[in-house]
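Coenzyme PQQ synthesis protein D (PqqD): structure, please.
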Amino acid sequence: MVKIVSTDFPIRVVEKTDFFYLFNTKTFETISLDKISIRIFEKIKYKGVCTNDELNQYAKINNVSEKDVWALIDFLQINQFLSVSKGLNYD
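Here you go.
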């Protein structure tokens, strides 16, 4: 399970032909993501709390592995585009 702890930093998204640039206006970090990754990022960000089943569903819908989704979450967290708590039980 993943819970979004903080998205209080502003993020600007710029669309290019086959990828998107994300620019964090607080840290001035810029990264690029492909269309599949940006879709998964937006789902996770706006959902707030995602169960493992939901993450598996996002992976399946986008034809990627669950490992790819977790790698994306880790990448976004390392680059300060998400702050998350993983593996917690929210009953």
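Notes: Residues 2-7+35-86 form one domain.
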